[in-house]
Amino acid sequence: MSYNLLKGKKGIIFGALDDKSIAWRTALRCHEEGAQIVLSNAPVALRMGEINKLAEQVNAPVIGADVVNMDDLKGLFEKSMEHFGGKVDFVLHSIGMSINVRKGRSYTDLDYGFHQKSLDISASSLHRVLKTAWDLDAINEWGSVVALSYIAAQRVFPDYSEMADAKALLESIARSFGYHYGVRNKVRINTISQSPTKTTAGSGVKGFDDFTSYAEKMSPLGNASSDDCAAYIVTMFSDLTRMVTMQNLFHDGGFSYTGVSQGVIENFAKGIQ
After folding, report:
1. To the nearest whole number, what is the mean pLDDT of the chain?
2. Count of domains in the chain?
């Protein structure tokens, strides 16, 4: 059901790879709610993914940009504003990559070159996106920027490895830039800490399926799906959340505030027996 929450709004969505990705589901929902969109991803992701299918569905141009390249980002925002005939109202940062995790390296045995790339792509890229928008004055007053995080930024999940560092940095950037952008243009910047979600990227984490099952048993409402997350992001882009900024918002069915669930206790007891 559409509520026209984003009617007349225009935005850029980073990170749609395939129909499993949260960015993909968000683009569909933003389109449904009346928004105009520009889709962007790294050139290599554009070659590997299926983003052109999404572009047809939501009637959006695809503009490639490497998020660690300031010239690429400048070109993306300039072309987007040219396409829209003005500034943007929202931006989704759904970007994350860890070579160490892909290669199965433990947190105590990181390759620091890979580690730097992980922080650069997964976190510092948000600062670059915001810095580019800031310099070009590319976001309308009361605009909204959302970046996707995970609870490992606050708590230890051993197999999430260096991505926990990246998410912690991501949340810090959202808070710090959120202050400055709020003062200057009333632009709000938040992160959303989503349930473990079976995306192409998320499934690459060791033990992902087991942990997803654990989170499902721990969460009073169960795990939030990618479509649930897309709906929440839409509300953050809408005018209904104009006074929410610099927050990390948990969207995880209650997992983040549940010490232990009865289902987990019962499973643990069965294991002991």
Report:
1. 93
2. 1
